């Protein structure tokens, strides 16, 4: 049973899924492993994810591992109808997803997956877990474990756990070491700069780029902007992160000083009002403002618009805001995340590693769910290393391994560290 827009789109969807598969070598290797070992045999997996070609490759991998997969959309706007059709018709996935579904249909789709009585829950925003706990408590009790993809979902799960309402253990995939390095630093670092360039076509070399926030995202943006010839200034509130930026050779300044220097100002803090009303008087004529943080509150767009004398759209993802004194401010993607608003978000290679981690975590949960108390848990230690190993193999990179003597040396505590003898 499935509910998709048009099953006749399956052939087109199969093409898309195959295209994405080429860019997903790590997930392909996990799939081969799953086909041999069948770690999910006999288990129903309920997944509420973006129904895209990349996710389809995750679903097909779970099927290869022996799972019966039930899939609905975590956001009806990202659903690809042809992909949904191919998964339903060619891969036997019980898909309930239609692009642009209204709120009623969206809830019905999630309800259908919840009603299947999943043993394992894969969530992106926690909607499936909430549907189980609120509408079907007896089915929530039967869930063995789950995993959650987004910071928002993790917040909701922690709130459920704190209220004693969470019936099963959930692994949080949003902030693993692999995600921080691959997705936040390299993926978002690249795609944010990509978004700024696509939106404006400016030359970065010789310009001053201000990066607000030196977490993995800010770090990635800063190093890419510098590599393209920009002078980079960082703003921070955390002393350790600020020190990291200084030792990396960046100038660190408070925003009130940095705002007057930037030709481009990019926010990546996860905080609000980082570029605010009080900075408007300081901005240079023609400054480009972009945001890479999750929500559209990092640049106070309302204050900016309120101060405007004139607002014109000058390019598809760029508005020029003219201030009363004649200075122009160029706002990208309305202050929403610029790598999605003006570019294509994360490249498939990034999704490859994220989904490989998710597939391996799902297999781990199938075996070890009994060890997880209800609550939110970190990804088990060796899965990140396994994903990194598979990616390195796909890139053709070999690494050293410890000798027996080295392993003993690293774990010995009885003998002195200095052996003498020169
Ligand atoms: N665009 C994307 O595709 C994408 C991908 C991953 C993460 N994100 C988002 O990007 C943001 C940053 O992610 P991260 O992983 O680097 O987070 P992080 O929390 O590790 O880093 C944010 C940094 O900003 C600093 N900060 C907070 N308030 C500040 C302020 N007022 N001025 C200056 N610095 C301030 C913090 O001290 C911290 O060091 C988050 O909102 C995250 O959700 C976006």
Q: Please give the radius of gyration in angstroms.
A: 24 Å
Total number of helical segments? 17
Averaging pLDDT over every residue, what do you get? Answer: 96
Indicate the low-confidence ranges by residue numbers: none
Terminal Cα span: 74 Å
Basic shape = globular
Helix vs. strand class: alpha/beta
Give the number of DSSP strands: 15
Write out the strand line-up for the largest beta sheet, numbering strands in chain order.
9-8-7-10-11-14-13-12
Compounds present?
nicotinamide-adenine-dinucleotide
- Biggest sheet features: 8 strands, mixed
Percent in helix: 40-55%
Quaternary arrangement of the chains shown? single chain
β content, as a range?
Answer: 15-25%
Q: What descriptors fit this protein?
A:
single chain; alpha/beta; seven-stranded parallel β-sheet; 46% helix; globular; binds nicotinamide-adenine-dinucleotide
What does this structure look like?
This protein is of the alpha/beta class and 422 residues long. The protein is 46% helix and 16% strand. The protein has 17 helices and 15 strands. The chain has helices at residues 10-22, 25-37, 53-64, 81-91, 103-115, 127-135, 137-142, 151-162, 177-200, 216-227, 239-247, 255-258, 301-307, 338-341, 348-368, 381-395, 404-411; strands at 44-49, 68-73, 94-96, 120-123, 145-148, 169-172, 208-212, 231-235, 251-252, 264-267, 287-291, 310-315, 318-322, 328-332, 375-377. Strands 9-8-7-10-11-14-13-12 form an eight-stranded mixed β-sheet, with helices on one face. It has a seven-stranded parallel β-sheet with strand order 3-2-1-4-5-6-15, sandwiched between helices. Strand 12 and strand 13 (318-322) form a beta hairpin. Helix 1 crosses helix 3 (53-64), helix 2 (25-37) crosses helix 16 (381-395) and helix 5 crosses helix 6. It is globular. The model has no long low-confidence stretch (mean pLDDT 96).
């Amino acid at each position: 049973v499935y509910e998709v827009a048009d099953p006749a789109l399956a052939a087109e969807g199969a093409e898309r899924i195959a295209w994405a598969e080429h860019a997903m070598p790590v997930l392909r290797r996990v799939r081969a492993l799953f086909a041999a070992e069948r770690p999910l045999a006999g288990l129903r997996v309920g997944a509420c994810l973006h129904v895209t070609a990349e996710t389809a490759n995750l679903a097909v991998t779970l099927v290869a591992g022996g799972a019966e997969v039930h899939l609905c959309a975590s956001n009806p706007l990202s659903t690809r109808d042809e992909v949904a059709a191919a998964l339903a018709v060619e891969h036997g996935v019980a898909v309930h997803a239609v692009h642009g579904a209204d709120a009623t249909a969206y809830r019905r789709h999630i309800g259908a997956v919840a009603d299947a009585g999943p043993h394992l829950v894969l969530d992106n925003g926690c909607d499936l877990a909430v549907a189980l706990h609120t509408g079907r408590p007896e089915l929530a009790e039967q869930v063995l474990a789950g995993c959650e993809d987004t910071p928002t979902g993790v917040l909701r799960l922690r709130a459920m756990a704190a209220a004693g309402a969470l019936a099963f253990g959930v692994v949080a995939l949003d902030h693993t070491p692999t995600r921080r390095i691959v997705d936040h630093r390299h993926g978002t670092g690249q795609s944010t700069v990509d978004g700024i360039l696509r939106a404006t076509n400016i030359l970065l070399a010789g310009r001053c780029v201000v990066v607000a926030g030196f977490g993995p995202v800010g770090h990635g943006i800063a190093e890419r902007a510098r590599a393209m010839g920009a002078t980079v200034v960082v703003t921070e509130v955390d002393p350790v992160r600020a020190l990291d930026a200084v030792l990396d050779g960046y100038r660190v300044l408070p925003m009130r000083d940095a705002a007057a220097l930037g030709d481009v100002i990019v926010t990546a803090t996860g905080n609000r009002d980082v570029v605010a009303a009080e900075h408007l008087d300081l901005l240079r004529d023609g400054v480009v403002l972009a945001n890479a943080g999750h929500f559209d509150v990092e640049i106070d767009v309302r204050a900016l618009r309120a101060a405007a004398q004139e607002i014109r759209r000058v390019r598809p993802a760029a508005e020029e805001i003219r201030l009363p004194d004649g200075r122009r401010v160029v706002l990208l993607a309305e202050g929403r995340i610029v790598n999605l608003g003006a570019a294509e978000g994360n490249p498939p290679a990034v999704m490859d590693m994220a989904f490989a981690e998710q597939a391996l975590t799902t297999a781990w949960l199938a075996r070890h769910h009994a060890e997880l108390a209800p609550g939110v848990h970190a990804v088990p230690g060796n899965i990140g290393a396994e994903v990194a190993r598979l990616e390195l193999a796909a890139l053709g990179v070999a690494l050293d391994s410890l000798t027996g003597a080295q392993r003993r040396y690293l774990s010995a505590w009885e003998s002195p560290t200095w052996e003498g003898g020169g």
